[in-house]
Specification:
Number of strands: 0
Distance between the termini: 62 Å
Structural class: mainly alpha
Number of domains: 2
Strand content: under 5%
């Protein structure tokens, strides 16, 4: 037979173990949040205003070219600092940052799909 003192000790031990597991999970979650925050702050395309980002996105979406040579003739090479090339870099850097966060499992694909709809 199990007496009340044994049950009390087992319950206290289980509570301590549950508390330690919960605390470990919380620390892991907080470190993921901090890491995500650092990455987002380091990527300058995440700090653009909505208007700047939309202007760059519209500029990229409205590009018309047949092949790479036609692109270079109309807009310049990727090493130039024209507004069109800067817009392409802005959009590319944004999606590169999103891809990095996805690869590191710092955000879920469902959040990205909701964001981009």
């Amino acid at each position: 037979m199990v007496d009340i003192q044994t049950v009390s000790i087992m319950l206290a031990s289980a509570s301590v173990i549950a508390g330690v597991v919960y605390y470990a999970l919380q620390i892991r979650h907080q470190s993921k949040i901090r890491e995500t925050d650092v990455i987002v702050r380091m990527n300058p395309s995440f700090s653009l205003s909505l208007i700047d980002w939309q202007q760059a996105a519209f500029k990229v979406a409205n590009l018309q070219f047949k092949d790479y040579d036609d692109f270079v003739k109309k807009y310049g090479s990727f090493s130039t600092e024209t507004p069109t090339i800067m817009a392409i870099h802005t959009i590319g850097n944004f999606y590169e940052g999103i891809g990095y966060l996805l690869k590191r499992n710092l955000i879920g694909i469902d959040y990205v799909l909701e964001l981009l709809r």
